[in-house]
Design brief:
alpha/beta; Isoleucyl-tRNA Synthetase, Domain 1; Rossmann fold; 3 domains; binds zinc ion; four-stranded parallel beta sheet
């Protein structure tokens, strides 16, 4: 069976042919770790996790790299506000991100490189760009000269000449061209910085992905993933940097072969934003719903399409999965039969929908069709269909046993937090402190925020 994937660069659905069949290589732009991940952030992690699962059905080895941005102006700001070091802040939220994604059934990437561990690689990268005359210095910054890369705009299909003459915001006077972007900038006073040929400074955001994907995967690699909002300028800039390392302009394909972009997430048809106060944190949703319910919701629309969710849709997904739990109680076969499938046409049908550009709505329709067939058939056929259903649920990551340890502990944690909230309301601060200590012993750190108590595991 062939695998097909949509590719943003060619705007086509293409057969997936890996560069090296023995090792499929994928890169995804990971989170900037300075706050709790919201449901929109989780979509990239969940759809990419499914992509890896699907590829593993065909290829033995899939190397999946997803970076952690642990240096950035927002991080510097947040650390200052919270009066903690940048390392303390980023380590905490890195851990929280991984825990929340684990609750959604997302496996850890093969490797999660942290930007600050690759500063030397970024400096070497920028040096080459300067030597190749693709970068210039201005006001102490090193900027990438987007006019030097003739394919700039190829991914996002922007016509760059129109932009130059258009009525967009006035260009910053230290830039030769509006689209030029910072590779390196100076650090002042208490800002974190690293020694470089251009003085004490720190990298811009875009350069980290180019440097880390090159170092961790080698160029070109197979698939680059990320949210659709990163297409421009972030991914366009990654291409420009990575394709300007040699003599002359290399084509975008010399960076990676497929661009896999997932759509936005909205709540009640409204974009989640801080100013509207409608940001749904994964952590808060997990208080009400199992991780597999949230995961099913994130997979219910095709990954390329926008995804809208509501309290109502989450309730429906919850009921749906509970209904399926019935099958786990059917005493029809030995456990191994659930896992071991030989020539199961039902499963082949299900898998073919995922091989066709990770078409989850179609996969779920096929799954439902199989479910409807279970009751009115022979015992032998019933076993085959049930085997397929179990295996299908497992690939999607929404099977019953997908509850992880954290989720199992959640009941007890929530109980203690509730007791502590009550103690605080009743001004019984001794009891509140005792409960906090008790949670600490369970490696649970709590934080009182205007939106209620937040908790996270410290280990
Ligand atoms: Zn990136």
């Amino acid at each position: 069976m062939k695998i097909y994937l949509s590719d943003t660069l060619s705007k086509k659905k293409k057969e997936f042919i890996p560069i090296d069949h023995k090792n499929v290589r994928i890169y995804a732009c990971g989170p900037t770790v300075y706050n709790f991940p919201h449901f929109g952030n989780a979509r990239m992690a969940v759809v990419t996790d499914l992509l890896v699962r699907v590829l593993k059905q065909k290829y033995k080895k899939v190397t999946f790299i997803s970076n952690i941005t642990d240096i950035d102006d927002k991080i510097i700001e947040a650390a200052k506000e919270q009066n903690v070091t940048i390392g303390e802040l980023t380590n905490k939220y890195h851990l929280i991100y991984n825990q929340d994604m684990e609750s959604l059934g997302v496996s850890l990437p093969t490797f999660q490189p942290k930007a600050t561990d690759y500063i030397a690689d970024m400096i070497d990268f920028i040096k080459i760009l300067v030597d190749n005359k693709c970068a210039y210095e201005s006001d102490g910054n090193i900027l990438f000269d987007t006019d030097s890369y003739k394919y700039y705009g190829a991914l996002s299909k922007r016509v760059m000449n129109d932009q130059k003459t258009g009525t967009r915001v006035k260009k910053a006077n230290y830039k030769r061209n509006d689209n030029d972007f910072i590779l390196w900038k100076p650090s002042f006073k208490n800002e974190p910085g690293w020694d470089s040929p251009w003085g004490l400074g720190r990298p811009g955001w875009h350069i980290e992905c180019s440097a880390m994907s090159k170092k961790c995967l080698g160029l070109p690699f197979d698939i680059h993933c990320g949210g659709v909002d990163l297409t421009f300028p972030h991914h366009e800039n990654e291409i420009a940097q990575s394709c300007s390392l040699g003599n002359g302009n290399l084509k975008p394909e010399s960076f990676c072969n497929y661009w896999f972009h997932n759509g936005f997430v909205t709540f009640d048809n409204i974009k989640m934003s801080k100013s509207l106060g409608n940001i749904k944190l994964v952590r808060d949703l997990l208080k009400k719903y199992e991780g597999r319910v949230l995961r099913l919701c994130l997979l219910s629309a095709h990954y390329k399409q926008p995804l809208d969710f509501s309290e109502n849709s989450l309730k429906q997904f919850k009921n749906y999965l509970h209904k399926l739990d019935y099958f786990y109680n059917v005493n029809f076969s030995e456990e191994y039969e659930r896992e071991k499938i030989v020539n199961n046409n039902y499963f082949e049908e299900f898998l073919s929908s995922l091989f066709d550009d990770i078409n989850t709505p179609k996969a779920l329709r096929i799954l439902n069709d199989h479910i409807s067939k279970v009751r009115n058939t022979t015992l032998t056929e019933k076993k085959i269909i049930l085997q397929s259903i179990f295996k299908s649920l497992k690939i999607l990551g929404i099977e019953k046993s997908s509850l992880n340890k954290l989720e199992n502990d959640k009941g007890e944690i929530m109980k203690l937090i509730k007791e502590r909230e009550n103690a605080r309301k009743n001004k019984n601060f001794n009891l509140a402190d005792e409960l906090r200590d008790k949670l600490k012993k369970m490696h649970i750190e709590i934080e009182d925020t205007p939106d209620g108590t937040k908790w996270f595991k410290t280990k």
